[in-house]
Amino acid sequence: MQVRLSYAERAAYCKNALAKKLFFLMDAKKSNLALSADVTHCEEMLALADKLGPEICVLKTHIDILEDFTQAFTIELRKLADKHHFLIFEDRKFADIGHTVKLQYEKGMYHIVDWADIINAHGLPGPGIVSGLMDEGLKKQRGLLLLAEMSSANNLFTDDYAKQTLRMAEQFPEFVIGFISQRKLSEDPGWIYMTPGVQLQEGKDALGQQYVTPDIALVKHQSDIIIVGRGILKASDTLAEAKKYREAGWKAYELQI
């Protein structure tokens, strides 16, 4: 097995300040666990963030599924991120021309750029989508993940598409921090890879989501961060389950360095 650099060592290769911060945060906190908090009410989201915040490095949100969203909610969420030392990742999956995504990022009812440390986008529209998001994001030291692969069955992402996404990222290293992917895409140690669809047991759900284990994601596929949602949220004791995933993820990481 190839020995990899530690998270702290890899921070030196990042050209984005937020990417450096995330690597150091993971190293200090001993967590490579991202919680996918797909809940539909603000109070529930804040309760999860407060309870599980000490276990995670990233909290992933879908802000548009909240039924009772207010600007006060994002203020409270940011306070919890600062209190428990995790980053907020709004899983918006921007996918439009640069002018439009710039407005979606900055304006509207959500004002995503004001509170989300990390966002993500599809590369399909071309490099203009990155430029549009970067115009607003760099002002607030934010970071972008590009979608190179997804965990759903029969998706249309190809190896060639992943390679083209990598090439696009290489044009914007000051803003793009890495990828949503199932595996490492480059030997450049400065990129961060986040892998969704992780559970303690392999399997799939009724809607095509395919699950891999922390060991497969982090050791076999050499990803960096495991994204876990229902594996934790559906547990009778969410805190105990989050601790299991955190320990499994960190153990897998330590095997490689």
Q: How would the global form be characterised?
A: globular
Task: Say how many strands there are.
Answer: 10
* Rg calculated over all Cα atoms: 17 Å
Compressed to H and E, one letter per element, the order equals HHEHEHEHEHEHEEEEHEHH
Count of discrete structural domains:
1
Strand content: 15-25%
**CATH homologous superfamily label:** Aldolase class I
Under the CATH scheme, which class? Alpha Beta
Number of helices: 10
N→C terminal distance: 10 Å
Most strands sheet? 8 strands, parallel, barrel
Provide the residue-averaged pLDDT.
95
Low-pLDDT sequence parts: none
Oligomer: single chain
Q: Kindly identify the CATH topology.
A: TIM Barrel
The CATH architecture can be named as Alpha-Beta Barrel
Would you give an account of this structure?
The protein is α/β, with parallel strands linked by helices and 257 residues long. The protein has one domain (7-254): TIM Barrel (Alpha-Beta Barrel), CATH 3.20.20. Helix content is 39%, strand content 17%. It has an eight-stranded parallel β-barrel with strand order 1-2-3-4-5-6-7-10, surrounded by six helices. Helix 7 links the parallel strand 5 (143-147) and strand 6 (176-180). The longest helix is centred in the last third of the chain and has 17 residues, at 238-254. The termini are close together.
